[in-house]
Amino acid sequence: MEKVISVCPYCGSGCKLNLLVENGKIVGAEGADGVTNQGELCLKGYYGWDFLNDTKLLTPRLRHPMIRRRRGGEFERVSWDEAVAFVAGKLGEIKREHGPDSIMFTGSSRGTGNESNYIAQKFARAVIGTNNIDCCARVCHGPSVSGLMATLGNGAMSNSICEIEDTDCILVFGYNAADSHPIVARRILKAKQKGAKIIVCDPRYIETARVADLHLQLKNGSNMALVNAFAHVLISEGLYKADFVAEHAEGFEEYKAAVAKYTPEYAAEITGLPAELIRQAIRMYAAAPSATILWGMGVTQWGQAVDVVKGLSSLATLTGNLGRPHVGVGPVRGQNNVQGACDMGALPNTLPGYYDVSDAEARARFAEAWGVDSLPAEKGCSITEVAHRVEAGTLKAYYIFGEDPLQTEPDLGMMRRAFEKLDLIIVQDIFMTKTAMAADVILPATSWGEHENVFSSADRGFQRCYKAIEAPANVKDDWEIYSLIATAMGYPMHYDNAQQIWDELRGLCHLYAGASYDKMAGLGYVQWPCPSEDHPGTPWLYEGYQFDTPSGKAKLFAAEWRPPLEKVDAEYPLGLCTVREVGHYSCRSMTGNCAALQTLADEPGFVQIHPDDAVKYGIADQALVWVASRRGKVITRANHNPRVNAGAVYMTYQWWIGACNELTVDHLDPISKTPELKYCTVRVEPIADQ
Ligand code: SF4
């Protein structure tokens, strides 16, 4: 049996594993001694490889290029030559007729590598001439990137996953580590065992709350009020580090004025928390010699997400918890390579290496390297704006690479209507997802395990994955598919392997210049910034308290709290929050095709409801129910759960039937354009005659 080093394709923890290969098939996985996981894996790491055996539990593997000549018709299997010519011809036609910005692209944050994301954005920018490329960070940690860029000058985790266990205090804000990143949850537990204080701010009694010193069960949608109240206590009680702030931060007076009215008593009215608990929590955070803030979708999937990220960053700045080990700000990125898709420039506003598209010098340098006269300077379209641009008639084609927007975007009815109006839908993927079923062209790609690539973990760590098995005969590497189409469109593009692409990227990006394949060989882990061959990488940022902002100082920021868009009323009396489940991942196209994981959760989702609400609305435990919002109605099973707060219900978004995004609302944060997936109002109704 051969052991092939790889990185788990699910969450951003970056767990290194060995794929066990026998007779050309993967037969198992074991934890490898990676930097973040140290030989451990969660159940998805142990059992999440089975989709490569094409178990067809959920959907069949895409094995041949296919074209559908008319909407509603059958897919027709075609040769690669025909598929490439068809796509090149159609994209060229649409570009000529409607301009480059009439075409939208996605990068992919799951299973594919950084090299293919780099090529995807190069195709969009150099071949088509648009910045219309985005990735699932938009519905995930987009606000973390925007918020931290504004306050600290770098949108990533400031410190490393492995540092978490040696911090003295962890403030866990809107982050369910046990379900989202089990290996990070282990670090939190280890920190607890070593004596750290744990503070959890979450409306649900999540697993981490069980080991917490304090659990602040705030009302859904009140994050900003709580963060402002924390700041108010730090300032009014003199708990902040005045010297640090004076020397390394700016904007203190405005910040102090902005949080002045957020006394704990005032915030108590909004958050539903006792004022004294708010004081106790932030005193605990401020008293710790080193403290870390970790957050997840409970912070970012709101209409006021960027403000809250800036507020959390400001708490770390006020208390001097930046620029050294075991402290910092930790947006723990979701999918295994969502950090990488952003690193590679699969974003509408940045080139690879986070050069802003408005940066003329950077554009000129990339244009020269890519052999084009110029690159577009205007920020492109985000994936959450697609439906609106289609509706406005400005977007005509959508090239979707390893994403499933007809499962993962808010208000799926709106998305389906937009898809019907598109002239061309191209899907490049490994499975027949919901989105693939709506495509005009399907381009089948190799999967994780079938190619070599580099991933970025949530803490900026680059790691190599090696090829374990041969791909099906008629599928191609993602970067090769783009290269063939580019060449057919008159832009010759050719690479022999992924390393050539990686080296081209390194040559263009200061942050990654020293992260060579050799340095990442085997179990190697290189955290950017890594600006030169002799640089070891950077486990924690802001050494010497030099922030990456133009002034070199951290910016303090507070904003007025805004409530969620929708309000409960007699017709829709409950707030719906979308959440994760530990056994499945994202749109479930991969985990849904793994026998062991499927066995753990084999029927469409659930709605978690507090027992008091269940009595109030006549909902029996485990009964099938309708959940309805202003946009749609789905069937699912009720789960009485005393861990959730009364007045709110919780659903996972992995399931095709009972897809909670039929219900969610298209309300976006004004800066990051991230949807308010954590709140819309619903009613839950029993189904008669069960
Ligand atoms: Fe590690 Fe995340 Fe994979 Fe689990 S899902 S093994 S925590 S990378």
Task: Give structural notes.
The structure is a single chain. The chain has 690 residues and is of the alpha/beta class. The chain is 31% helix and 17% strand. The protein contains 24 helices and 26 strands. It has a seven-stranded mixed beta sheet with strand order 5-4-16-15-14-6-7, covered by helices on one side. A six-stranded mixed barrel has the order 21-25-22-24-23-26. Strand 1 and strand 2 form a beta hairpin. Helix 4 packs across helix 14, helix 8 runs antiparallel to helix 11 and helix 8 packs across helix 12. The protein binds iron/sulfur cluster. The site of iron/sulfur cluster (SF4) has 13 residues, from helix 1 and helix 6.
Protein traits:
single chain; globular; seven-stranded mixed sheet; 31% helix; binds iron/sulfur cluster; 690 residues; alpha/beta; 26 strands
Overall residue-averaged pLDDT value: 95
Task: Give the ligands present.
Answer: iron/sulfur cluster
Q: End-to-end span in angstroms?
A: 50 Å
Which oligomeric form is depicted?
single chain
- The fraction of residues in strands falls at 15-25%
Q: What is the count of DSSP helices, taking H or I runs of 4+ residues?
A: 24
* Spatial order of strands in the largest sheet: 5-4-16-15-14-6-7
Radius of gyration: 24 Å
Largest sheet: 7 strands, mixed
E-strand count: 26
Alpha-beta classification: alpha/beta
